[in-house]
Amino acid sequence: MDTSEIIRTSFLSPLVLAFIVGIIATLIKSELEFPQPVLNAISIYLVFSIALKGGTELAAAGLERIVAPALVTALLAVVTPSLAFFLARRFIRLDIANAAGIAALYGSVSSVTFFAALSLAEKLGNPAEPFVPVLVSLMEWAILVALFIARWRLRRAESDGNLPISEIVIDTLRGRSVILLLGGLFIGALIGEGGFKSVKPFFEDPFRGVLTLFLLEMGMVAGRQLREFFRLGPRLLTFGVAFPIFNGLLGTTLGVLAGLSPGGSFVLGAITASASYIDAPAAVRAALPQANPSIYLTSSLGITFPFNLLIGLPLYYQFAVWLHALVH
């Protein structure tokens, strides 16, 4: 399949089209909106479904297949936020707190980008390994790396008291996405494919339809960030596009070298390129209240998320297929 066909397949998916409709609905000031309890239920359903199914597949595959991918993911969880902090300080010229906010969001993972990458890989005939939710949960630990950098640099600069590192660790562990991912994987690995059959009609069949609704909401949220996008200038725009491309190609390359399939390498590249805008902001608000949400949310949600959805995913996929054929 050539590049134009991959882009066409990605663009004409219900997920991307729903996202675009959400942006349009916001721009024309439509009355469309989702009640917050419904959004919470949708996000819980999506994350728990993918983790539960991943756990059942992990039970069948065995732990030995995940060692090398887990090691490269742990490396990415350290490198990605560290590099994001350095670039935010030197290139965007942000202060320590705002640079750490950027680093935390870009070190963490966008669940929606992860779901979209899984869907695209499957649609193009290269499904990822079923244990990739484990890699997502490992990548979430990058939040700790970013907050540790911020705490260390702030203490050096101001010598003031900040949130204890133990509380940051606890906050991350009890975060919604970590609980859902680890809990779902644990249950899935325990019950196996046989136990999963009894709940499969609820957790597998409606998954894509629910995800399409969630992308509609995400398009509306991204549309509301457009004004900030134009206000914050070309440096943030350049960072929000160039940094995920670098991360996507790096994650894909390490995935191929760790023995993942083309689909698995592509998904690892996609989650490395993504930036969280749901769970990581909560940790940043708790640990760094002085950071400005309009900066880190606009970069993550207003720039990087739509770029990855429309252009980044086809790019990372094509690179994964090319590199996998070259190496293997």
Structural overview:
The chain has 328 residues and is mainly alpha-helical. The protein is 80% helix and 0% strand. It has helices at 3-11, 14-27, 36-61, 67-90, 96-107, 111-123, 132-139, 142-158, 165-173, 176-196, 200-203, 207-224, 226-231, 233-257, 262-273, 280-287, 293-327. Helix 4 (67-90) runs parallel beside helix 8 and helix 14 packs antiparallel against helix 15. The radius of gyration is 19 Å and the shape is globular. The mean pLDDT is 81.
Task: Give the gist of this structure.
The chain is mainly α. The chain is built from 17 helices and no strands.
Unreliable spans are none
The largest β sheet comes out as: none
Report the sheet-strand fraction: under 5%
Quickly count the helices.
Answer: 17
**SS elements, strand count:** 0
Average pLDDT, rounded to a whole number, is: 81
Helicity level, as a percent range? Answer: over 70%
The general outline is: globular
What is the succession of H and E elements? HHHHHHHHHHHHHHHHH
